Amino acid sequence: MGLFRRKKAEPEPEPTPEPAPTLPEPPGQDERGLRSVEDQRAWTLSMIHELPPFGMQLLDAVGLGLCEEIRSDVNLPGFDNTAMDGYAVRAQDIAAATADAPIVLEVVGRIAAGEPATAGLGEADLAEGQAIRIMTGAPIPSGADAVIPFERTDRGEDEVRCFGPVPEGANIRRRGSDVEEGDLLITEGTRLNDRAIGLLAGVGIDQVMVRPRPRVVVIATGSELVEPGMDLEDDHQIYDSNSWMLAAAAGAAGAQVYRVGLLADDPEQVKQSISDQLVRADLVVTSGGISEGDHDIIKEVMPELGMVDFSRVAMQPGKPQGFGLIGEDEIPVFMLPGNPVSAYVSFENFVRPAIRKLMGVEPHLREPRRAIASTVLRSKPGVAQFHRGFVRTDMSGRRTVEPVGGSGSYLLDSLQRSNCLILMERDVEMIAAGQSVMVWAVDEE
Ligand SMILES: Nc1nc2c(c(=O)[nH]1)N[C@H]1C(S)=C(S)[C@@H](COP(=O)(O)OP(=O)(O)OC[C@H]3O[C@@H](n4cnc5c(N)ncnc54)[C@H](O)[C@@H]3O)O[C@H]1N2
Ligand code: MOO
């Protein structure tokens, strides 16, 4: 017992520190320490979330991902109308007409597009022996069941000679024959193109719910890099191609791109510059500095900015990969390898799907097409191979593909000459000429 029966004050318990947030459990590795491309993609995509949707005017929505289902409230056409300038007639009245023995009809009115069907006749039906001059898009008057084009008549004003018959229904565009009220027009997850905008406008819709363009910051690192347009000061410098190519690719995928100037291999500068970018980024993409070198700057500084993961993926090119969630807002960052082809192939495999997921556009991954290999293709065992290729489709629809350039991941020229990536799965070592293989046609949407 203590003095004066007072209990000794219990020491305050030490507050348990919040555990530092970590990335979800990364995918497993093979015996050589490599992850599969599919696992790496699924894992990184699991940390990317669709951006919240907004209502946008049609022209602001071009290229964006629709996040509602669009059904039509109207019929298209909204009324039976004529596809030709001519005369609305009763087909049976001129069934016996020929060039030599034309049938004469009385012209009882005239309807232009935008005028009501009653403009010609009032409330009466077109009667036997009557015709109405009618212009393309104008509504078909009641009683008429065909339109004879001007070219098959003498274009008469008060009466018209018809030089041949027309079948019932000829040149009439029926109400609802394009779109019926209630039809499903565009599904959620569709990236809106120019034709979709036309259809939406055509059914009277002026605003849609879409996800905004993801803001993608693209950064290249490397002290050897020089901005295109500047002089190379010595012969061991190179021009930065990656940040331009990645910025262009991100833009084509639908992003709002911010390309940041080059960052030299100075840790403090790189850290500060990347942190400064986070306020305007939904996604950050870097290139270079992630493999085993002494100056792999990204590998060095990024752990100070958040939760990051560097790994090796069973793919060629593109083996070294980095991913993280950085800054207070845990902005996703893809840290791509510096070799230009590796950066491009990594973009196609991981970044483009992430941009599409942010936009709510499906499918996330490019859809592979089947093509016949025109020469033998080889791959190292145990890695997914992404050869550059040129795919063409002949007149009969047969798609063939040939490799372009070698497999070196520095080969920018052959990358430019290619229009596809040839996909050779991890367990495939050879594709013989004439065998089929899957390709990503990278110039397609
Ligand atoms: N000992 C090892 N060395 C390397 C390995 C490895 O596993 N062990 N992997 C190789 C592979 S594969 C790749 S890919 C590269 C990736 O390297 P980094 O991401 O660290 O990239 P850097 O070293 O910065 O650059 C590589 C290469 O690319 C050129 N480069 C970089 N940035 C640009 C740019 N913006 N525009 C044009 N060219 C760029 C750079 O000059 C280098 O030539 O590592 C291998 N090494
Ligand atoms: O895998 Mo590196 O990405 O080939 O050149």
From TrEMBL:
- Please state the pathway this protein functions in, per its UniProt record: Cofactor biosynthesis; molybdopterin biosynthesis
Q: Where is this region: Disordered?
A: 1-35
According to its UniProt record, the EC number is 2.10.1.1
Cofactor(s) recorded in Swiss-Prot or TrEMBL: Mg(2+)
**CDD domains recorded for this chain?**
MoeA
InterPro entries named in the record? MoaB/Mog-like_dom_sf, MoaB/Mog_dom, MoeA-like, MoeA_C_domain_IV, MoeA_C_domain_IV_sf, MoeA_linker/N, MoeA_linker/N_sf
SMART domains in alphabetical order: MoCF_biosynth (SM00852)
Q: Does the keyword Transferase apply?
A: yes
Domain spans labelled MoaB/Mog? 217-357
Q: Which controlled-vocabulary keywords does the entry list?
A: Magnesium, Metal-binding, Molybdenum, Molybdenum cofactor biosynthesis, Transferase
Name one process (GO BP) from the record.
Mo-molybdopterin cofactor biosynthetic process
Biased-composition ranges, Pro residues, are: 14-27
Claim: Lipid metabolism is one of the keywords in the record: no
Q: Which GO terms describe its cellular component?
A: cytosol
Q: Name one GO molecular function term.
A: molybdopterin molybdotransferase activity
Summarizing the function annotation, the protein's role is:
Catalyzes the insertion of molybdate into adenylated molybdopterin with the concomitant release of AMP.
Family per similarity comment:
Belongs to the MoeA family.
Q: What is this protein called?
A: Molybdopterin molybdenumtransferase
What organism does the record attribute this protein to?
A: Propioniferax innocua
